[in-house]
Amino acid sequence: MPRYVYSCKKCSGYFQVWHGMKETQESCQLCFEDSCLTKVPQMPTIKREQIENKDVGDMTNNYIEENQQLLKEMKKEARNQTYDD
Fold first, then answer.
1. Given this model, what pLDDT does residue 44 score?
2. d(CA 2, CA 20)
3. Higher-scoring residue by pLDDT: 70, 57
4. Alpha helices, DSSP H only, in 1-85?
5. CA-to-CA distance for 27 and 31, rounded, in angstroms?
6. Cα angle at 27 between 23 and 31, to 5 degrees?
7. Which of the four pLDDT bands, split at 50, 70 and 90, describes residue 64?
8. What's the confidence (pLDDT) of residue 28?
9. pLDDT tens profile 5-63
10. What pLDDT is recorded for position 80?
11. Separation between Cα atoms, residue 17 and residue 22, nearest integer Å
12. DSSP code of residue 18
């Protein structure tokens, strides 16, 4: 869910709320007043990893190999697990 920042006109406070894109916050979480909120515009942030001298194809192959290994381990655990009827 997206995070939104609201400011209150009554108490001049700021707070964060997580809710759906079509939802709105109606009351202040600080002073509990209704209909006094303004949504504060936020710039989206994108986290990017620094990758030095690595080809995207090599990284993709590494991720595939890691996931294949995890899947093999999970299958092995599932086969060894006993279930009660």
1. 73
2. 6
3. 70
4. 56-80
5. 8
6. 150
7. very high
8. 93
9. 999 999 999 999 999 888 889 999 999 999 899 999 887 776 666 666 667 788 889 89
10. 85
11. 13
12. E
CA–CA dist 20, 3 (Å, integer): 9
Coarse DSSP helix, strand, coil percentages of the chain, rounded to the nearest 5 percent = 30, 20, 50
This prediction has a pTM of 0.49
Contact (Cβ atoms closer than 8 angstroms) between residue 11 and residue 19: no
Q: In what order do the strands lie in the sheet with 14-18?
A: 14-18, 3-8, 37-40
Neighbour count for residue 28 (Cβ, 10 Å): 20
Shortest CA distance to 42 belongs to which of 25, 17, 23?
Answer: 17
3-state SS class at 19:
coil
Structure tokens at 63: 């991720």
